[in-house]
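HUMAN: Forgive my ignorance: could you write out one protein's sequence and backbone structure tokens?

ASSISTANT:
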Amino acid sequence: MAAFVVTVLFLLVALLAPVLTALTGWGPITPDGKAIDPDTGNFPIGSLGGISLTHLLGVEPGTGYDLFARIVYGLRTSLVVGFASAVLSTVVGVVAGLAAGYSGGWVDSVLSRAMDVMLAFPQLLFIIALTPVIQSALQTNSHGGTDENLRLLVLVLNIAVFAWAYTARLVRGQVLSLREREFVDAARIMSAGRRHILFRQLLPNLWAPVLISFALAVPQNITTEAALSYLGVGVIPPNPDWGSLLSDASQFFLQDPMYLFVPGVLLLFLVLALNLLGDGVRDALDPRAGRN
């Protein structure tokens, strides 16, 4: 329940980002030249990274951007990519797992080998290699770069492409067991079609493992997105993103440790809350998997 409450708070902050930043009066890319001191290399004025009533979490060194606004909008980016890629990979994985487990034969062999291949790929390395290539081929704005929404779409697709096999393998194993059950035999005897058996008989009995898989995929995808942005193949600066914030903050850690500490701790709490929430969902939906 504590993880659920923390997760809901993060979701509300992301949804209310325009309202919260309007209350503070600072946008994610609105610099405050008065909050940084040019005589010290444009570092924040004051202690703890410039934290004050004007800037609740301080400002970025060098730019003067309000850190609270950038974290709030960066949270939206992380959650959008994490949830969208989890939804896409779950849908593809469920369809592939259903087809492989119920059909058997050569269909099962082909899809199972495809799952093995995808699970064998070093996911992060291939996403790092593919993302800039795809984005370079999709130059859409007047500056010869990639539109930000399209860039996020590429991130979502790349993450989902390498993540669907985990759900597919889980669903396939469940379907192999369920297809021999009496209710499936009864549906066949009553001349039910394959689509009816798959989506009206088998799928309703799979919602628990599918929901568990989805709940555990979201924090993993958020971490992947942050790692990609940290390595420079995610969101384009100055657009806010937690991974890029951590990347920039690592250069100023000795001079302004709060710049690294704040987004780092928030990312830790977000991923931890989502992981604990996924564990709670698993324990609630599968009591037989109780821990000693």
About this structure: The longest strand covers residues 36-37. The chain has a mean pLDDT of 82. The beta strands are 36-37, 43-44.
